[in-house]
DNA sequence: CTCCAGGTTCCGG
DNA sequence: CCGGAACATGGA
């Protein structure tokens, strides 16, 4: 990140209430990949808007004028206590809840979410962050903010003009073709991300899966992290591990569709929340047992 | 060096 | 419907 002019962390801040929210845990939970620590808080873009956010106890101190945007993006209106009350009360879920309390399911811009999760396949979170930042730097708009140069996420129309080689130079590997294809389908109007918001869950899932590089897992991430479908339950390698080792312990030949059906029925109306907590807890604490 | 990572797609039973 | 293999890249 370049310094475009010397300036300390922003001083024109306003306070908003965030009683049950945990900013650090939320930003570290593998939903978004572009926030930078800055002073005692964080800077990043929400859409085209550069924002500073710092948590002090039950309050967020944020750039003046970004109150509505921040509240929506971080889903500060989600009633976490009511959501927790719907979780199954088994030991694994209780452990995850204890570890993840305060994480919200965010409400990201749809395209940015689709694009970053297209690049996520077979990549660690640190790599997804690198690719996301490289794409912003190469194709996004620079925004000078609080002495830092931030970059917006390029819209589909912009990436549609890129070459596959340019995207590979952002270290996308085989994902370059998929991201380019998806950008083109959306820029051409063949897929309408706004209209997907009006569809029911199964229909929206099917529509998202028409994009190259988007299968059931990525589509569910997008439904969850961008469209507020809090029942969507993405099954990645971590969640599959949790399901098999805890909820299907000792059972053999458990198929993928079996896991899907179980997770849909067992985790309730906020299954997506349960999934995110189980994922984050497992990813942060899992160690392969010695000798196996 | 080997293993694996917030998968998708294609191909053969 | 199911399992297997290919696909790029870099951190552990």
Task: Describe the model.
With 292 residues, the chain is of the alpha+beta class. The protein has 15 helices and seven strands. It has helices at residues 23-27, 67-73, 80-85, 91-100, 110-118, 125-139, 156-159, 164-168, 175-187, 193-196, 201-208, 216-225, 237-247, 256-266, 271-285, and strands at 13-17, 36-38, 41-46, 49-56, 59-63, 142-145, 148-151. The strands form two sheets. It has a five-stranded antiparallel β-sheet. The protein has a two-stranded antiparallel ribbon with strand order 6-7. Strand 6 (142-145) and strand 7 (148-151) form a beta hairpin. The radius of gyration is 19 Å and the shape is globular. The chain binds a DNA duplex (13 and 12 nucleotides) through helix 6, helix 9, helix 12 and helix 13.
List the helices and strands and how they pair.
Blueprint: E1 13-17, H1 23-27, E2 36-38, E3 41-46, E4 49-56, E5 59-63, H2 67-73, H3 80-85, H4 91-100, H5 110-118, H6 125-139, E6 142-145, E7 148-151, H7 156-159, H8 164-168, H9 175-187, H10 193-196, H11 201-208, H12 216-225, H13 237-247, H14 256-266, H15 271-285
Antiparallel strand pairs: 1-5, 2-3, 3-4, 4-5, 6-7
This protein binds a DNA duplex (13 and 12 nucleotides) through residues 30, 117, 120-128, 130-131, 168, 171-176, 178, 212-218, 221, 234-239, 255-257, 279, 283.
């Amino acid at each position: 990140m370049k310094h475009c002019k010397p300036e300390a962390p922003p001083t024109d801040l306003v306070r908003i209430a965030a009683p049950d929210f945990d900013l650090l845990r939320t930003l570290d939970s593998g939903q978004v990949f572009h926030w930078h620590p800055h002073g005692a808080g964080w800077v990043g873009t929400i859409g085209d808007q550069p924002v500073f956010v710092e948590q002090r106890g039950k309050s967020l101190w944020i750039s003046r004028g970004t109150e509505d945007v921040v509240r929506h993006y971080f889903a500060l209106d989600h009633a976490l206590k009511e959501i927790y009350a719907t979780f199954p009360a088994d030991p694994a879920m209780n452990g995850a809840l204890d570890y993840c309390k305060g994480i919200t399911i965010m409400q990201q811009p749809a395209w940015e979410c689709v694009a970053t999760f297209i690049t996520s396949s077979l990549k660690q979170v640190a790599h997804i962050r690198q690719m996301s930042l490289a794409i912003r730097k190469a194709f996004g708009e620079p925004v000078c903010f609080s002495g830092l140069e931030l970059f917006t996420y390029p819209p589909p129309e912009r990436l549609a003009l890129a070459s596959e080689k340019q995207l590979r130079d952002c270290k996308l590997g085989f994902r370059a073709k998929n991201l380019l294809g998806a950008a083109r389908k959306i820029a051409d109007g063949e897929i309408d991300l706004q209209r997907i918001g009006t569809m029911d869950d199964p229909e929206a899932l099917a529509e998202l899966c028409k994009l190259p590089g988007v299968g059931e897992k990525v589509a569910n991430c997008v439904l969850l992290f961008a469209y507020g479908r809090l029942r969507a339950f993405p099954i990645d390698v971590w969640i599959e591990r949790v399901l098999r080792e805890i909820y299907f312990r000792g059972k053999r030949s458990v198929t993928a569709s079996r896991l899907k059906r179980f997770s849909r029925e067992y985790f309730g109306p906020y299954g997506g929340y349960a999934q995110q907590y189980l994922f984050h807890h497992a990813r942060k604490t899992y160690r392969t047992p010695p000798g196996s």
